[in-house]
Automatic annotation (TrEMBL):
Its EC number is 5.3.4.1. Belongs to the protein disulfide isomerase family. This is protein disulfide-isomerase. One of its GO terms (molecular function) is protein disulfide isomerase activity.
């Protein structure tokens, strides 16, 4: 569900998920007698201890905080709408029902404890809406065999089964988001609005939605609209055929049928779709417009920002005050590049959010404003290296769009290599000292925190002394954790590479486990191969 192509993003995603789960954003509906278990039949094995036991306590308490105790009471009733599966019932439940949304949990797992009450609440709301989906949960720790037979392998896991086949869950984790996603994927992707009262009620509960206006709810345009509603994961789609209702739901311009528009709570409130009605185009339109011109990143929306498939993303990191000042000019720039890139502002003091990105540029200690960009197509990153002015930011964006910006590679500052036996190479000097060096190069890739690197470093120093005086052989080392180069191939530490003088693109890996003597012999052998190859060429 995420798009974690940069490795340190992968690391932060679980943390963000947890934070998401910790933040309640629930509207509770009490309009229902949850004790009426209806058609949920003999499959049910409600374990009341489970329902009201320790596992659900922290989350229930969380819901209660700042509110009356009533929610907790409703919550424990609501939890019974969720079918508890066990070793005997799991497979049958997913085989015998058209739609089953299953939550795999473990009693010891904090993420599960946070998710369970939201899931229960979603079950309650879905039932109230007359949804055909069955919500079920299974203790995957206790019934591990049954859980893995229905593809539950981690906790918490949400999976939707449609006639027995699983689909990954790609929605959000508040109860509202669970409801929204589940309806989209189980045959109710669009909500119909047929009266002004309906429209007003809807507006009370939603600030972001997509509205379709059609003469008739049939035909190819309408078909594409419904298809995109089901494919999208998070925007509520509504439909109406009456112009006076469209006026309430989309009160700008005069929508002509067929019409599709997006409504948001941020600036750029109303955006109408002017493409051809195809689900691809509609989804593309949503992707480009569902975020505000400039998204201010928070713990809450970060997962959505990460999962955005918008190819090019521009991030501005800065102190809150500086960001506030930059926001207006940034919005102006964002308007110009709207369908091409997404703009995100991050408070540099929000370390959880800012550091993982800044580390990718070696700027984790920066206190100044930093502007960077990621291109998820080419997996490249860019840094604005001139002063941070709106003019320079705009030029940076133009360069990105036109493909004239050079990708950024991390580099330490260029060291003084005078009078050393082993050269220190950094990202910026890798070309000069290794690739374009006419000599053979033995390069040690290390990091400051790798303990086993020390022995190799000592070996390299001794080898440098041993081979001193050979002008066709150079020894060098690079801290590969803080220096990057597209042609630097260091995957683990320590790494020893022999770059033959006549073929720098194919370095030979030398075993760092060899003793000094074997290493010297290996280097001699490679030098010899080099000489022979050179002779052959002559
Ligand atoms: C599930 O199976 C039933 C019976 O074969 C079928 O009528 C229904 O359309 C299927 N549902 C989906 C979503 O494919
Ligand atoms: C340069 O290296 C030589 C021999 O290793 C040493 O004697 C000399 O002091 C060094 N000079 C400097 C400036 O470090």
């Amino acid at each position: 569900m995420y798009n974690p192509k940069f490795s340190s993003r992968t690391l932060i995603v679980p943390a963000i998920l947890l934070l998401l789960l910790l933040t309640a954003a629930a509207v509770f509906s009490e309009n229902e007698d949850a004790d009426d278990l209806g058609e949920i039949d003999e499959l049910i094995a409600i374990d009341d201890e489970q329902e009201n036991g320790e596992n659900s306590q922290p989350a229930a308490a969380h819901f209660e905080s700042g509110e009356s105790g009533k929610k907790t009471e409703v919550l424990s009733r609501a939890q019974r709408v969720v079918l508890e599966l066990n070793g005997d019932t799991a497979k049958r439940a997913i085989e015998e029902n058209e739609y089953v949304l299953v939550l795999g949990y473990a009693p010891w797992c904090g993420g599960s404890a946070e998710l369970m009450p939201r899931f229960a609440e979603a079950a309650n709301v879905l039932k109230g809406l007359g949804s055909r989906v069955l919500l079920a949960k299974i203790d995957g720790d206790r019934y591990s065999k049954a859980a893995s037979s229905i593809e539950i392998r981690g906790f918490p896991t949400l999976l939707l089964f449609v006639n027995g086949s699983s689909r990954p869950y790609t929605g959000g984790f508040s109860s509202e988001e669970i409801v929204l996603w589940t309806r989209k994927k189980t045959g109710a992707p669009v909500v119909g609005i047929s009266s002004v009262a309906d429209a007003k009620e809807f507006l009370k509960q939603h600030s972001t939605y997509a509205v379709g206006l059609f003469d008739k709810f049939e035909g190819p345009d309408y078909g594409e609209f419904v298809k995109s509603a089901a494919a999208d994961n998070e925007v509520q789609f509504i439909e109406t055929s009456r112009a006076e209702l469209a006026k309430v739901l989309y009160p700008v311009g005069t929508p002509t049928k067929p019409f599709f528009g997006l409504v948001k709570s941020e600036p750029e409130h109303y955006t109408s779709f002017d493409g051809k009605f195809s689900s691809d185009e509609i989804l593309h339109f949503l992707e480009n417009n569902r975020f505000p011109l400039v998204t201010v990143m928070t713990e809450l929306n970060s997962a959505k920002v990460y999962s955005s498939t918008n190819r090019q993303q521009v991030y501005v990191f800065g102190e809150d005050d500086d960001l506030q000042k930059l926001l207006k000019p940034l919005q102006e720039i964002a308007k110009k590049f709207k369908s091409q890139m997404m703009f995100v502002a991050v408070d540099i003091r929000e370390e959880n959010l800012a550091k993982p990105f800044l580390t990718l540029f070696g700027l984790e200690d920066s206190e100044d404003t930093v502007v960077v960009s990621f291109d998820y197509n080419s997996n490249s990153k860019y840094l604005l290296e001139s002063d941070i002015t709106s003019r320079n930011i705009e030029e940076f964006c133009t360069g990105l769009v036109q493909g004239t910006m050079e990708p950024y590679y991390k580099s330490q500052t260029i060291p003084d290599n005078k009078n050393v036996s082993v050269l220190t190479v950094v990202g910026k000097t890798f070309d000069e000292l290794v690739l374009n060096n006419p000599a053979n190069v033995v390069l040690e890739g290390h990091t400051p925190w790798c303990i086993t690197c020390e022995a190799t470093t000592k070996h390299v120093e001794k080898l440098a002394k041993h081979f001193k005086g050979l002008d066709n052989l150079v020894f060098a080392r690079i801290d590969a954790s803080t220096n990057e180069h597209p042609k630097l191939q260091v995957e683990d530490y320590p790494t020893l590479l022999f770059y033959p003088a006549n073929d720098k693109s194919n370095p030979i890996k030398l075993s760092t486990k060899s003793n000094l003597k074997d290493l010297a012999a290996l280097i001699n052998k490679n030098l010899k191969t080099q000489e022979d190859a050179t002779k052959d060429e002559l």
